[in-house]
């Protein structure tokens, strides 16, 4: 038991130091666990996927992102889509990309729209800022070449988790 005001201050000091040590140890443990369980860094722009076979393995764990990467990384559009894709943050500027793609050829634009539909999965009847609805199967068959259809099929398989 404290005998005077000095003893009370010592007791409060011991409690504060003990609390500080507990918080510091907890922070170190949390930091260590986070470091050990951290995912590998995402691929850089140099590692962009141009086909299903080139998609890094980490992409397969994020179905929506992986489907978009397969299509937006297609060789003939990857140079134009690159500025809209932020690999480290795993974000895509969909509005900017879709507005830019409005000036591209119909088949190139269609790859962007399919990527958007697979990654973003807009709800039917949702307000679309670009004024475009979901891509139809008939449009895919009419507009895309066989290699592009294979690419779309790969993206769809990834989106389904296969």
Strand order of the largest sheet: 1-2
Structural category is mainly alpha
User: Helical proportion?
Assistant: 55-70%
Q: How many domains?
A: 2
Overall pLDDT confidence: 77
List the helices and strands and how they pair.
Blueprint (H helix, E strand, L loop, with lengths): L4 H33 L25 H10 L5 H4 L3 E2 L4 E2 L1 H8 L4 H15 L16 H7 L2 H15 L2
Antiparallel strand pairs: 1-2
Helix pairs in contact: 2-5, 2-7, 4-5, 5-7
Note down, in words, how this protein is organized.
By secondary structure, this protein is mainly alpha-helical. The protein has two domains: about 1-40; about 45-160, no CATH class. It is about 55% helix and about 0% strand. It has helices at about 5-35, 65-70, 80, 95-100, 105-120, 135-145, 145-160; strands at about 85, 90. A hairpin with a 4-residue loop joins strand 1 (about 85) and strand 2. Helix 2 packs antiparallel against helix 5, helix 2 packs antiparallel against helix 7 and helix 5 runs parallel beside helix 7. It is rod-shaped. It starts with a helix and ends with a helix.
